[in-house]
């Protein structure tokens, strides 16, 4: 469970129950795993079972009630969605136009520039000051939050589901893995990568939010750079840029706490506009060709960057991915979008069940076939903590990169990022966790379920 291998944990608990149907702990463990894999209904039945075996267990009773409350909330939200609530982008613009989200005159923090027509503009100075403002424990006014999210949205909405990023001569692109709301580690990471610019692009490979208790600060900083430098800053969607995850792992609670309900709706919608994958395309042929190099039709290396990984079938092409309709959609539990955001590599050949209980696991032969079919030199993915921050797998064709050091304040892992140059050479940099103010992860998880999931 600590490794987030909930699929395995569920199988173990199920076996334990088979051996001893009165083993309360097994139901409890399986219930918490179901909760974390978003099967709230199944979690409720397991918690109920614990209570029939241990009627006086108040902790489990409280967790049952919290889970039932969460379930009711999710059902309620689904019902509202079906009634066709207004698109949050339009609604926020409407509120702004009506003067319903003006800046408070007493606000003394960093200021965005405004044109004569009342249009907000972002500058590098604003972002620097915003970061200092965040470090002093302060939040931005709602209007600025909306302007930043809408400013980034304008670019995401124009991007395809698979973004192509050419790496010109003398330029580099850094691939950053999961950050998970660890703002102080992100600032340290940016000090190592350097900020995005004409010769240096950043690609954040999903899971910027949830778990860490500075997810708002992380996402606003990343979105502010996207707004300022749309051609140097890229962000892929992760499985945590999704409503069901945000309601379980903290971002929804944090966003509402810091900026209110409508701001959360805006974030949740803009998450659906994030591209699903990025193809990094070095523009110069390899200097030294490796024996097993798989090259593009033009004889260059190119790397497929995605949060989770490959698919339950072989024949998926880059074009198929480019055409996936994503806007307004959640990854769900199956299909191409779900698999891109959720799958993991495995050592054994072929495909296996997901240790998480969502998606599948794909073996080295699957990776090799897919790379060969698509002329892709390798896959860079994130989604799983690695003790060294990165790990090269599948005969060098699949690299995992994870950028949340000492994940959730307890994994003891390093963070890492991968730099790709214009020849398609890769360089890895590791880094350690930084001190942060005394605030525990999962601080904003609603319904009192946070401590159970630590
Ligand atoms: Mn993930």
Report the radius of gyration as a whole number of Å: 22 Å
Give the overall silhouette.
Answer: globular
Mean pLDDT: 95
Q: For this structure, what is the CATH homologous superfamily of the largest domain?
A: Metallo-dependent phosphatases
What is the architecture of the largest domain at the second tier of CATH? 4-Layer Sandwich
Bound molecules: manganese (II) ion
The count of domains is: 3
Instruction: Walk across the major sheet and give the strand order.
Output: 3-7-8-12-14-13
Helix/sheet category:
alpha/beta
Structure description:
This protein has 454 residues and is α/β, with parallel strands linked by helices. The protein has three domains: 6-82, Tetratricopeptide repeat domain (Serine Threonine Protein Phosphatase 5, Tetratricopeptide repeat, Alpha Horseshoe); 88-150, no CATH class; 158-453, Purple Acid Phosphatase, chain A, domain 2 (4-Layer Sandwich), CATH 3.60.21. The protein is 39% helix and 15% strand. It is built from 15 helices and 16 strands. It has a six-stranded mixed β-sheet with strand order 3-7-8-12-14-13. Helix 2 packs antiparallel against helix 3. The chain is globular, with a radius of gyration of 22 Å. Bound molecules: manganese (II) ion (MN). Manganese (II) ion (MN) binds at residues 178, 207, 238-240, 307, 383.
